[in-house]
Amino acid sequence: MQELSVYLMAAVPFFILSAIISKMGNLTLARCIYLIIFNLGVALTASFVGKAGSAEFILLFSVGLPFVWFSFRRERFLIGFFSGMSLIFWFLLYFTNFDLFTTVHMDAEKSGMYIYPISILTTIVLVTFQLIYFSYINNGFYSKIHDQREEAIEESNAKSKFLSMMSHEIRTPLNAITGLSHILGDSNPREDQKENIDALNYSGKILLNLLNNVLDFSKMESTKIELDPIPTNIMAAVRQIKKIHEPSCLRKGITMELEIDEELPNVWLDIVRFNQVINNLISNAIKFTDKGSVTLKIVKQEESNGTVLMRTEILDTGIGIYKEQQEKIWQAFTQASSSTNRLYGGTGLGLPIVKSIVQAMGSMVKVESDPGKGSRFYFDLELKLASSGELDQIIHKKVHDLKGKKILLVEDNLINVMVAKQILEKANLVVDVAYNGQNAVDMVQENNFDTVLMDIQMPVMDGYTASREIRKFNSTLPILALSASVFLEVKNKILQSGMNGFIFKPFDPENLLNRIEEVLDN
Question: Which residues carry this modification: 4-aspartylphosphate (predicted)?
Fold first, then answer.
């Protein structure tokens, strides 16, 4: 016992040193010194008092101590090292029959009578403390995670509300643009006006694509981009691209070229998404090209077994992209360099969205570029062939049988009222107008309507509340939401409020009439 006391007294300065180093702020070194001396001290004591004293059980506390003291992420090695040290001492004591440091042990009877209770009690107290402390740390950790989760949900909801509001505010006037261009094109315009009207209509769709870029980015990491392929004539689908982008090229003194393979067959393609990709890539090419040309090239590579392999290329003679920066451009909110953003502007969303859409179409967009010489973006799509009959069904307008049907248009925007009325009345519908939800509820109570077109965001009473009020006294009247928001929570809320479906703004007039006819038939 005297020898043991000498050894333990020799360890005291090291514990004091550990405390001093800890006070100075170097916790890692202090803890390492402490654990080494503590493990040695327990193993030494166990060796002197012998097996009957069970002092080695205190190593159980020492095994768990590194998990409390060190970071599992940053100091994983130290946790493994010091936990392993405790276990090694334990095994060495067992296999040497406690002769690890001395062969002369304390009397077994005295050791069992006095040391054993102290050892066991000490182990119980230390391990109990350790378990309680572990629980305390875990509760604090999970509480922090819960708080962070709640904050993340609040931030996500705030983002969704902001995007929904911006979607509504932008889509509402955009609905007027696309609606009026349709009305102009349907009013027997002169031949010299048709092309301009088509360009106006296409420009509205381009603006809608830009808005969709922002919405797509907010969704593309959490949900899959959905495709809606239709029979498409590629030549006809992209004929307006040059007219849309050529003014930007003329302002910069560059040329815009189209090279579309005349042998391209009709295909099944989500033309809205395809145009979104093309317009993003062409807009980028024009932005970074100050002399020379920008070329859109679409060629047929091979055709077999009812499918065609089509390659789409966008080539420019612009500033180009360095090899080491070509991976970086696909990251959101990122451009090739900070100087690029200062000189040319942009959000850095275009290419990540292009990549996501092309991947959803089953392909990969690739880039080849030489600094100072230009860039080539290209991708291959394997598309199913479409017959002329299938294409004709898409192109030819359906004859609607809506004459005499009475419809209530609930809309607070006067321009949208004007546009929608002209479209609906041209289809021989009788149209009444309510400018808020309360007005709509009153009019449905006093009149018989065949269907209701219900705007969502209105003064006095919104569309959700108005629909619920109508359902209290009329459960059969078809109600279609006119929504400028494309978010899933809005769609769910529309259906929960008792409406029969929704039409997104800006709406395609043909789709609007088809949807009305569908709910009337049902």
Answer: 455
